[in-house]
Amino acid sequence: MSNLTPLVKAALDELQAAFPDNEVTHTEDGEGGANVTVSGFDIGPAFSPRESWVGFRLTYQHPEIDVYPHFIRPDVVRVDGAQLGEGLSGPMTPWGTLQAVQVSRRTNAWDKTRDTASIKLGKVLEWLRTR
Amino acid sequence: MAKNSLTVRMVESDYKALLKHVFPGDRDEHGAILLCGVSKSAKGLRLLVRKVVLAKDGIDFIESRRGYREFSARFISKWAMYCAENGLAYISVHNHGADQAVEFSRNDLQSHERAYPSLQELVKGNPVGAIVLGKRSAAGRVLVKGKFLVMDKLTVLGTRVNDVFSHPSKRPRGTEDSMYDRQLRMLGQTGQAILKNLKVGIIGLGGGGSLQNEWLSRLGVGSIVSVDPDIVKKHNRPRIVGSTAKDVAAKRPKVEVAKRVAKQANPDIDCQPVFDDVTFEEIALKLTDCDAIFLAGDTYASRQVFNRLVHQYLIPGFHVGARVSVDKQTKAVDSVRAEYRVVIPAAKGGCLECCGLVPAEKLRLETLSDSQRREQNYTDSDEEELAEPSVITLNVLSGAQAANDFLMMFTGLFDDGVQLASQRHELTKRQFFSVGHLSKAECETCGRRLGSAFAMGDGARLPCKIRGAGA
Lengths: 131, 471
Description:
The complex is a heterodimer.
Chain A (H helix, E strand, L loop, with lengths): L5 H13 L5 E5 L5 E9 L4 E2 L2 E8 L11 E3 L4 E2 L9 E5 L7 E4 L13 H13 L2
Antiparallel strand pairs in A: 1-2, 2-4, 3-6, 4-5, 5-8, 7-8
Chain B lengths: L4 E7 H11 L8 E11 L2 E11 L6 E3 L5 E3 L1 H14 L2 E7 L10 H17 L5 E7 L2 E8 L2 E4 L2 E5 L3 E4 L16 H16 L2 E5 L3 H13 L3 E5 L17 H5 L4 H12 L4 E5 L6 H4 L7 E4 L4 H13 L4 E10 L6 E11 L16 H7 L3 H6 L16 H20 L10 E5 L4 E5 L36
Parallel strand pairs in B: 1-3, 1-10, 6-7, 12-13, 12-15, 13-14, 15-16
Antiparallel strand pairs in B: 2-3, 2-6, 4-5, 7-8, 8-9, 10-11, 16-17, 17-18, 18-19
């Protein structure tokens, strides 16, 4: 039996609909929210490996608060050999045993009437692809 | 209050508008519809007035073939469908020329029997009913699952909480109890009886909450629900009223200490200790039939839940706390502040969200574990959370005004025209400030727009956690 809030469930459905070629999986966080992983993204030419999943948490408060931070595979490096750079840090363990690099792209004026988990994921991907 | 009781709750501005409409001075009958959220609990049913629709004479409220006046079919249909679509109860209102005692006429009762079963189908099974108003009285009947319930009272929420009955004899009567002799001299038997019939929730039984628990139980409040997931520890003993070294050794829940203290003050009080977190849905729902809620918790999430309970279930709230800022480098005390916020479900009533006191980023940070916060590079903000650190005398300062406002509000002792502002004491400066309230029409908690939680009762979700399997 699912113990997700109705709005978290709806966000998961929207994510799958917005990214039909990617697999959306989640584990429940025990409070009505979900730790989400969306697999199979091209994170752009600056990084190697170039394919990564993206993870993030939808708390029980969703959509009232920003979906932040996001996470990508822990073994990613820059192809030019430089440090990962501003907005990227880790690796760390955001939940369970998952190791990940954190992508810190906060939406300071999060507005739930305009911002969704899907839209935010799209923005994060765009940012990564333009590093 | 007996099980299967029925009460209707509305904010004062709505009640005044309703009275003005039905008693314009022409000694005639007028009508309105109340669209109500529904709140069910073990105590019974509460209908929470979300919207008052005034019926226009001659158009919406017309001459009747069977009685004196009736609502037009179009008017009924429109608002019944609105109730059906939005999960609301439909309550019609009209007036008689009565004052302190009012009752339905035979025609009124016959029309209920005749029309309400089919009207209930129109509103998809939601409660339907009627209220008849006198100038200072109200009688009501509501059809719920095929059975008519009689309204015990209409509760009007403002600076004073005013219970309106169908007859003066319905008002609870007190008994002379020598224990309350000194209070009776101020409150009267009626005031003391009011307190005895109140159910009060207290969120957080640390320093601030334990004081409220002591005071409310000594005032003679009938029932206290205390909610706190924490236990008594050595470092919080100086603040928790009635706590002992044995409680520390026994790792006693704070709510159990609160029950013990309350029972010592008033053996007849009903205490419901809840050793759990109010941010879980099934815990917050234990407070929905309270008459007042005190918040002395120290998380933004509990603040959010408290604020929503106040507005969604039309329950006056009192938020107390203290804050001491200490310079991180020098350890010198920068400021000492005691704050009290009154939150009533009314425009500029102190909605914590409108006042910026439930910031989204703080809520998000609270969802992280300590290790996650460290890993994600969050340093402590300069602004410490309200109610930290706790010194008992600071808690007394913020809590005493709250407790006395509660007393004055519910026993009707406030003077006309009193404005309930929130308060802040800056102790190092020995300054006192009244803090005004903001209201935003688009607020999803206190605003009245379609989709808001205001007066929705069980028809909207509280912003709460859902406990996971095995949790």
